[in-house]
Amino acid sequence: MAFTVTGPRTFLASGHPSLADPTATSPHLGLIRSTDAAQTWTTVSAAGEADFHSLQQAGPTLYGLDSQTSQIWASTDAGATWERRAKIGAGDLAAHAGTPQKVWATTRDGLARSTDGGGHMPDGSWHAGSGRRGAAAPDQLIALAADGRILTGSDGTSWAERGRLPEGARPAVLTAANPTHLLAGDTSDAVHESKDGGRTWTTVHRPDHETTGH
After folding, report:
1. How high is the pLDDT of residue 22?
2. Diameter of the chain by CA atoms?
3. β-strand 42-45 against 31-34: which pairing, if any?
4. Beta carbons of 26 and 32 less than 8 angstroms apart
5. Going by DSSP bridges, is the β-strand pair 110-114/71-75 parallel, antiparallel, or unpaired?
6. How confident is the model at residue 130, as a pLDDT?
7. What's the pTM value of the predicted model, to 2 decimals?
8. pLDDT higher than 90, residue 20
């Protein structure tokens, strides 16, 4: 389910163990970490408890979206311990090291924003906006719409179309390494890459391992 890169050869993930794994004791992995580029994994915390569908490192804070409780979890010690914060029916989170207290979430009603690190509901710290799936830079939002359009904005209320995924792609997830280097996955497990902020895209991985340019 959730997967993010937090440093050289250092990955964080969550989700479910393989059905064929005889050592699995729970359907929920909690937070797991690899420091050798996914060759081996160790459990960090919340095994058997949390199923994070999104993990976002924002400076000193790691945010997780637990699908079991619809709750934002936050950690300042690399996921060893967690603070439970607001509950929100969301599909993904986005945050950036430059503004770690500002957290964006994609919901069925559009884009939501917290300015207190995913803090309190229903005190107004979350604000409705627009958009589907997004990733944040300090002063820029980059969103992937359901029809494959790439949208950019600064405040979540207005958007400009930047480009579109290759024809036939069915959008699933977007991540921004920086405002110009974007990666998107679709429901066929293909991976698409843009190096110009979403204007043009190249398919860098297909399930059959073929690649093609667009």
Report:
1. 67
2. 50
3. antiparallel
4. no
5. unpaired
6. 45
7. 0.82
8. no
Name the amino acid, one letter, at 34.
S
- 40 has a pLDDT exceeding 60: yes
Q: 137 falls in which pLDDT band (50, 70, 90)?
A: low
CA dist., res. 126 & res. 48, Å (int): 29
Task: Record the tokens describing residue 78, joined without a space.
Answer: 């690399």
Residues 6+ apart with CB under 8 A from 34: 9, 10, 11, 13, 40, 41, 42
99 phi-psi bin (left φ>0, alpha ψ -120 to 50, beta other): beta
- Give yes or no for a contact between 58 and 103, defined as CB atoms under 8 angstroms apart: yes
SS (H, E, C) the chain: CCEEEEECCEEEECCCCCCCCCCCCCCCCCEEEECCCCCCCEEEECCCCCCEEEEEEECCEEEEEECCCCEEEEECCCCCCCEEEEECCEEEEEEECCEEEEEEEEECCEEEEECCCCCCCCCCCEEECCCCEEEEECCEEEEECCCCEEEEECCCCCCEEEEECCCCCCEEEEEECCCCCEEEEECCCCEEEECCCCCCCEEEECCCCCCEEC
Report the alpha-carbon angle 117-121-124, nearest 5. 85
